[in-house]
Amino acid sequence: MKKTLLSLMVMFAFFAGTFAQSVGVRIGGTWADFQKDFGYTAITNPTEVEGNLGLNVALFGEMPLAGGLAIQPELQYVEKGARIWDRGHVNAYMLNKWRYIDVPLLLKYRATTPKGNFFVMAGPEVGFAFSGTTIYSHWLEPNSDAPNRFSNEVSYTFDTDQADDGVKDNRFDAGFTVGGGVEFMIGKGYFSVDVRYGLDLTDNQVFDGDPVGSNQPAQNRVFGVSAAYAIPLSFGSNE
Questions:
Q1: In Å, how far are 47, 80, 87, 94, 218 from 138, measured between CA atoms?
Q2: How many distinct structural domains can be found in the chain?
Q3: CA-wise closest residue to 54 among 31, 73, 75, 33
Q4: Most buried of 46, 98, 143, 197, CB within 10 angstroms?
Q5: DSSP H stretches of helix in the chain
Q6: What's the rounded Cα separation, in Å, for the pair 178 and 172?
């Protein structure tokens, strides 16, 4: 795991340190869930998948190209997962929160105006889940009062094979991100606000006896809103 995280950091450092003419920090919130229908026997039916709130913090660089285009590599911490309700026997849910280090590599287009700039961006990303937690919560009766609620939070144990519980976890993610936003010059740098949507194309859980292609993959998807501030690097300036 340490080697994987180090490799992701080295990827970001290479792009940002070698080519970037500005660097910045970004922080925001996310709404994450699974693009998955859990309506099969692996989990008690019927179920309902909902999103959950998370945190997103990133470092990024920007390398201008031409005609308003730029390359923006990022190194980000992002929380993914979902809340899975079990409506079959009790009013209960399982809240999974996986913590990832992701490295998006975005192509960015900026349109400048006298009052501010507008931009759109898109590109691939790879990531690795380095930790996670699971919260189990249920009520003795549907819609009962708080004293009848039981909750337990445990550290998530990633399964490397299907021997124990029939589930194999995939800690690696690969997908894409799209988004857009606005930016304004404040001081020597630019303050920006963006919205973005990320979809992982890898299946993060594989169930024993689940034939390939028989069920929709359990893919993470994340909607985020964040604010950022970037400053130019002196050695990248043309002044």
A1: 14, 22, 10, 9, 23
A2: 1
A3: 31
A4: 98
A5: 2-19
A6: 20
Only one residue has tokens 């105006």, namely 113
pTM beyond 0.90, yes or no: no
What is the CATH number for 7? 2.40.160.20
- Residues 229, 23: Cα–Cα separation, whole Å: 8
Six-digit token string for 179: 């988004």
Residue 15: DSSP 8-state: H
Domain ranges, residue 30: 2-236
Select the more confidently predicted residue: 130 or 121.
Answer: 121
Query: Which residue would you say has higher pLDDT here, 45 or 78?
Result: 78
Q: Where are the beta strands (DSSP E) in the chain?
A: 22-35, 47-50, 52-64, 69-86, 91-113, 116-139, 149-155, 167-169, 172-186, 189-200, 205-207, 219-232
Burial class (CB in 10 A: 0-12, 13-18, 19+), 152: exposed
- Cα-trace Rg, the chain: 21
Whole-number Å distance between alpha carbons of 181 and 121: 9
CA angle 27, 32, 33 (to 5 degrees): 170
Beta pairing class for 219-232 and 189-200: antiparallel
Which residue, chain included where needed, has tokens 């124990």? 164
Is there a contact between 68 and 112 (Cβ–Cβ < 8 Å)?
yes
pLDDT one-digit tens code per residue, 148-190: 555 666 777 776 655 565 567 778 889 999 999 999 999 999 9
Which of the two residues, 129 and 212, has the higher pLDDT score?
Answer: 129
pLDDT given for residue 6 in this prediction: 62
Say if residues 232 and 188 touch (Cβ distance below 8 Å).
yes
